[in-house]
Amino acid sequence: FCATLGTTPCCSFDKLLELGPICNKENIWMHIDAAYAGSAFICPEFRHLLNGVEFADSFNFNPHKWLLVNFDCSAMWVKKRSDLTGAFKLEPLYLQHHHQESGLVTDYRHWQIPLGRRFRSLKLWFVLRMYGVRGLQEHIRKHVRLSHQFEHLVLQDERFEICAEVVLGLVCFRLKGSNELNEALLKSINEAKKIHLVPCHLREKFVLRFAICSRTVESTHIKFAWQHVSQLATDLLKTWEQNHHQQ
């Protein structure tokens, strides 16, 4: 069973405290996918979203998504390593060595299908050394602040609506109106090539997603993005109304 912390469409969170005991009782492997949101758990104020993680058998997040590490780098934990290594363990004579049963060596070829693996932990180590815990926490907190800034700008415009709670660095919003109207707005935004947005469907509604993820983003960029979206919406609504009257 895969529970998600920070879903791709709207960054929603499954209730681990409800799902976990059921999985444990029924002997179902519970995996947690926290690909994007997992980076935020470096900040104490977001760790309540992890409540129930103790029921999980495995947990994964991607430092390359929001923790300043270059693609690709995924971090995965397993509660009981023998469950994983027992599935992949391969012991031909030419791969055996004197330390394999000592418990002193973690032989990662038993953790995956390929025998070899890239040294991804090195680039994660460099980022941790360069930024430190406080630097990485501030990076996450800054993006969350900026997402709430964008949310506030959207809420000030009565033509728009917020479609999901803003928890981390993602704002889901749309023009009040038809899906076709919002599809046209997204098309005009992306064709202008000033910013780029990716959509999703939430309860049959076509929704625009404003994701803050650049290392160098500042408040001025948020204001620029909103002014750009707002102006394109104004232009679109004029055209939309004219076409409607003509019909």
From TrEMBL:
Instruction: List the EC numbers from the record.
Output: 4.1.1.28
So, what pathway does this thing act in?
Catecholamine biosynthesis; dopamine biosynthesis; dopamine from L-tyrosine: step 2/2
Which SUPFAM superfamilies does the record match to this protein? Answer: PLP-dependent transferases
Q: Does the keyword Mitochondrion apply?
A: no
Q: Which InterPro entries match?
A: Aromatic_deC (IPR010977), PyrdxlP-dep_de-COase (IPR002129), PyrdxlP-dep_Trfase (IPR015424), PyrdxlP-dep_Trfase_major (IPR015421), PyrdxlP-dep_Trfase_small (IPR015422), Pyridoxal-P_BS (IPR021115)
Question: Which residues in this protein are found as N6-(pyridoxal phosphate)lysine?
Answer: 65
What cofactor is needed?
Answer: pyridoxal 5'-phosphate
- GO molecular function terms listed in the Swiss-Prot or TrEMBL record: aromatic-L-amino-acid decarboxylase activity; pyridoxal phosphate binding
Question: Record keywords: Signal included?
Answer: no
Which keywords are on file for this protein? Catecholamine biosynthesis, Decarboxylase, Lyase, Pyridoxal phosphate
List the GO terms this entry assigns under cellular component, sorted alphabetically. Answer: cytoplasm
GO biological process, any: catecholamine biosynthetic process
UniProt similarity note: Belongs to the group II decarboxylase family.
Subunit organization:
Homodimer.
State the name under which the record lists this protein: Aromatic-L-amino-acid decarboxylase
What gene codes for this chain? Ddc
